[in-house]
Structure formats: C-alpha cells, structure tokens
Amino acid sequence: xxxxxxxxxxxxxxxxxxKAGVSRATLFRWLKAGVLEDAIYRDRKGWRLFTExxxxxxxxxxxxxxxxxxxxxxxxxxxSQENVGGVSHGQENSSY
Length: 96
Known about the structure:
mainly alpha; Multidrug-efflux Transporter Regulator, Chain: A, Domain 2; two-stranded antiparallel ribbon; elongated; disordered C terminus
C-alpha cells in the first residue's frame, strides 16, 4: 500500500516494481550492480520507499534501448571486475 507523507507518495518495493513493470529480482540485481541508485527513503523497518521519480527511473532503465554489442561490452566489463584470482569467470587458465 502506498504511503502519503507531507503530500508525497511513497511506494514499497513490490508496488514500485509493479508500477515500473519489472520483477523484484531484476530491481535488486540492478541496485546491486549499480545500474540504478538505491532508494534514499526507508520506513521505520528499513524497507525501501520509492517516489514517482524513482519509479520513472526504473521504467526508463527497463525500456532503454542500446546499440548492438553495447550490452555485451558492459557485461564483459562487469565480469572482469568480478574476477577471482586474476582469471575472469568463464575463462580457463591455460599455459598454451
């Protein structure tokens, strides 16, 4: 249920996802990867509260169109930052 405080509407995660048309898993993945900034508002329980502006940013990301290859390049860059022991995921350490 949306909360109105001082004339501003705030939505909890599930409501924000429904309004933006994305799953909770997708939203959390984007937040963790830094694709989107985390919600700056929280309720007493620490749950995220999203404004209409936050929901518009989520919608914008969900409908973003990129040039072919751009997403692949971003994924490779992200994977290289997540490498373990100097070897990127999905690559074998070979000596030849």
